[in-house]
């Protein structure tokens, strides 16, 4: 592998922002507006292969009093040719401006949509559904948020087979959580519906292809399903964050026993619960929020640090033989991401040196992506595209520089920026608009 440092000026476009949006989720248009006091009309993410949120020590005089003189966050996009560009925000007149809240999260939804939230990660003040093709926005009445609890780091944004969008909102006033469903089938009439009852406070959820929502809720420390027809089903209890949607689209979860449950819902909404013994020597039961769910078309892998871990456990595979995976190249991991074909682990080796691995799940073969050419990188954030392009933010060990880098599918490393100006809080790969 060779390192290619890009010798070009990084294009930075100053972003200004304010807030608008179309009331409750109206139709897409860059020029139309409703009786809403905000003015945000467009977030220019067009042409982005990835988006990231980074902290900047430069505060603008137009920022709110809460941000002046402090570190501020901004949204940047990485173009397909490797330039880093600050995302511009526009009002309905097409003018750029500064929004009153800092960006807090970016969620890639599907090939057409991105969701961007502002004003806090756990309790965002506002959120927007952004169309990738032109940056047109829809204001969300209830924005996606997180309190750090998910089923094995399941995605915050999930889809059913019909393309409906699901997420948890914890409430600006911290007054309880709910799972919401966003129907985008008619862009002139996008609808937002609360799925879980107001008596429950879901901490984590999954949605299966049929739109049945399985969730763990704190009010009774229970597991429950809200079926797509509105019916509710209580499941055997167990305060476990180990759960997944299996290869058949059924809900699987671990109870406090050593076994696990499969929940099957037929077309007539009849529910059957099947308890299976644990086929592994390692207990799958975990409340560990540092676990990772790794999903491929033919297998499911759970990586967890629970107990005497870390463990990497393949709970589903083509041979129907669950197994524990051994990766002696890495001692402890910090971050795991996966593409359509591989999974990637950043962490340290047995000598406590930073390392980044690429693993083929079909045969457990390992490629060491970092260190590269003798340079070590302590990865702070990373993500990967479906076709195996890795974007990362890291500390370069020999000089302490904060760098933004890219590793292509062939393992070639390119440093996109090494000015020590970015402290990245999130990286999101963007699926291309079709």
Topology of helices and strands:
Blueprint: E1 3-5, E2 40-43, E3 50-56, E4 72-78, E5 84-86, E6 89-91, E7 103-108, E8 113-118, E9 126-131, E10 137-139, E11 158-159, E12 165-169, E13 178-183, E14 191-194, E15 202-207, E16 213-217, E17 222-226, E18 232-235, E19 243-245, E20 251-254, E21 260-265, E22 271-276, E23 292-295, E24 300-304, E25 311-316, E26 323-325, E27 332-338, E28 343-348, E29 354-359, E30 366-370, E31 377-384, E32 390-396, E33 402-407, E34 413-417, E35 423-429
Strand content: 35-45%
Q: Residue ranges: pLDDT <50 for 5 or more in a row?
A: 1-37, 58-70
**Spatial arrangement of strands, main beta sheet:** 1-34-33-32-31
Helix content: under 10%
Broad structural category:
mainly beta
Reported for the largest beta sheet, the result is: 5 strands, mixed
CA radius of gyration is 22 Å
The total strand number stands at 35
Number of distinct helices: 0
Q: What does the oligomeric state look like here?
A: single chain
Q: Span between N and C termini?
A: 32 Å
The gross shape turns out to be: globular
Question: What's the pLDDT, averaged over the residues?
Answer: 80
Describe the protein's architecture and organization.
With 434 residues, the chain is an all-beta fold. 0% of the residues lie in helices and 41% in strands. It contains no helices and 35 strands. The strands form nine sheets. A five-stranded mixed beta sheet has the order 1-34-33-32-31, with no helix packed on it. A four-stranded antiparallel beta sheet has the order 5-4-3-35, with no helix packed on it. The chain is globular and about 55 Å long. Residues 1-37 and 58-70 have low confidence and may be disordered.
């Amino acid at each position: 592998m060779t390192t290619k440092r890009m010798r070009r000026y990084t294009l930075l476009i100053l972003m200004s922002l304010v807030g608008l949006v179309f009331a409750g989720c109206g139709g897409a248009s860059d020029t139309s507006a409703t009786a809403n006091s905000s003015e945000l009309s467009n977030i220019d993410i067009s042409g982005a292969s990835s988006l990231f949120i980074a902290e900047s020590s430069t505060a603008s005089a137009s920022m709110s009093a809460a941000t002046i003189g402090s570190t501020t966050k901004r949204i940047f996009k990485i173009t397909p040719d490797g330039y880093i560009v600050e995302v511009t925000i526009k009002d309905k007149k097409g003018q750029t401006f500064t929004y009153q809240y800092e960006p807090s999260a970016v969620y890639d939804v599907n090939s057409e949509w991105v969701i961007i939230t502002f004003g806090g990660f756990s309790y965002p003040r506002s959120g927007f559904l952004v169309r990738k093709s032109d940056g047109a926005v829809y204001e969300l009445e209830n924005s996606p948020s997180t309190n750090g609890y998910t089923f094995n780091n399941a995605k915050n944004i999930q889809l059913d087979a019909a393309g409906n969008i699901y997420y948890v909102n914890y409430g600006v006033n911290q007054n309880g959580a709910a799972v919401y469903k966003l129907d985008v089938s008619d862009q002139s009439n996008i609808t937002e519906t609360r799925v879980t009852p107001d008596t429950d406070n879901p901490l984590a959820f999954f949605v299966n292809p049929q739109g049945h929502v399985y969730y763990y809720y704190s009010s009774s420390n229970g597991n429950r399903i809200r079926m797509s027809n509105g019916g509710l089903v209580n499941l055997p209890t167990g305060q476990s964050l180990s759960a997944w949607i299996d290869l058949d689209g059924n809900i699987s979860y671990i109870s406090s026993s050593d076994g696990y449950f499969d929940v099957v819902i037929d077309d007539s909404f009849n529910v059957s619960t099947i308890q299976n013994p644990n086929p592994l020597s390692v207990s799958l039961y975990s409340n560990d929020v540092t676990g990772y769910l790794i999903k491929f078309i033919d297998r499911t892998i759970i990586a967890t640090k629970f107990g005497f871990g870390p463990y990497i456990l393949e709970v589903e595979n083509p041979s129907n033989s669950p197994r524990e995976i051994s990766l002696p190249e890495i001692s402890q991991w910090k971050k795991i991401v996966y593409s359509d074909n591989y999974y990637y682990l950043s962490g340290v080796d047995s000598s406590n040196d930073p390392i980044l691995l690429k693993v083929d799940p079909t045969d457990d073969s390992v490629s060491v992506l970092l260190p590269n050419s003798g340079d070590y990188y302590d990865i702070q954030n990373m993500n990967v595209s479906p076709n195996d392009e890795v974007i990362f933010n890291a500390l370069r060990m020999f000089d302490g520089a904060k760098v933004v880098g890219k590793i292509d599918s062939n393992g070639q490393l390119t440093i996109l920026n090494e000015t020590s100006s970015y402290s990245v809080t999130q990286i999101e790969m963007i699926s291309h608009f079709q």
